[in-house]
Amino acid sequence: GAVVSQHPSWVICKSGTSVKIECRSLDFQATTMFWYRQFPKQSLMLMATSNEGSKATYEQGVEKDKFLINHASLTLSTLTVTSAHPEDSSFYICSATRDSGTMETQYFGPGTRLLVL
Amino acid sequence: GENVEQHPSTLSVQEGDSAVIKCTYSDSASNYFPWYKQELGKGPQLIIDIRSNVGEKKDQRIAVTLNKTAKHFSLHITETQPEDSAVYFCAAKGPSGSARQLTFGSGTQLTVLP
Question: How sure is the predictor about B46, in pLDDT bands with cuts at 50, 70 and 90?
Fold first, then answer.
C-alpha cells in the first residue's frame, strides 16, 4: 500500500507554545489530505480537509485559528497547534488520498502523540 | 450526512476461530467501504476495501461482503491469530466529487485469545 509519514511521532511541549506536525505522502501525490484527532478508545474525529494550494475546510467546532493547516505541495501538509493547552493533548493522525482516476483510496500516517504540560 | 454504525464494540475469539464485524450505513449514495486495522499507538492501516460494484472481496484470511439493498457490509477474518488483535474501523464514502471524507464507525476491539 501507499506510504504516509508523520513527524514527529510524539511531542511534549509547555502550555502556550506552538507545535507543528508534518504529514507527507512518500510515494504518491495526494490530491487531498485530512487531519484527524483521536481520544483514547474512541473513533477518529475529522478536524479538517486540506487541498493543495487552497484553504483548508474545517469541521464544525474546530477552531481554524488554533489549528493552522498549510498544504504547500501535493506531498506535504502541516498542522500547527497554536498556543497549545493541556486539553489539546491527543493523538493526531493525518491521511492522504491517492486518486487513481475514478477511484480514491485514503491512507493514514502513523500518528503524532501530543502532550501539553 | 452519512452515518455508520458498527458492532460489536468488543469481540473476543479463540485463536483459529472466525471473527465477524458488521457495519450499516445510511446514505445510499455511498459507494466505497474500506476497513482499517489500528494497533495500539499507531495509525489506522487499510486492510481491505470494497466498492459498490461488487458484493464480496477476499484477500487471504480477510473478506468483506457488501449488501447494498440492506446498506450493510461486514468484515470476516478466518483462522484468527493473536496478531489480529487490534481495533478495527469500518468506513463509508460517497462518489468522488461529493463529500471527500470518510465516515467512520465507532470501532471494534478484537481480542484473539491464544
Answer: very high
Binned at pLDDT 50, 70 and 90, residue B97 comes out as low
In B, what residues contact A, Cβ < 8 A? 32, 34, 36, 41-46, 49, 51, 89, 93, 96, 100-102, 104-107
Please, are residues A32 and A23 in contact by the beta-carbon 8 Å criterion?
no
Q: Are β-strands B86-92 and B32-38 bridged in parallel, bridged antiparallel, or unpaired?
A: antiparallel
What is the C-alpha separation between B14 and B61, in angstroms, rounded?
A: 15
As a whole number of angstroms, the distance between CA A96 and CA A76 comes to 9
Taking the CA of residue A14 and the nearest CA in chain B, the distance in Å comes to 22
Positive or negative: CA dihedral B5, A50, A91, B50:
positive
More confident position, B52 or B37 = B37
List C-alpha distances in Å: B21 to A111, B24, B66, B83: 24, 11, 12, 17
**What per-residue confidence (pLDDT) applies to A96?**
93
Cβ–Cβ contact A1 with B under 8 A: yes
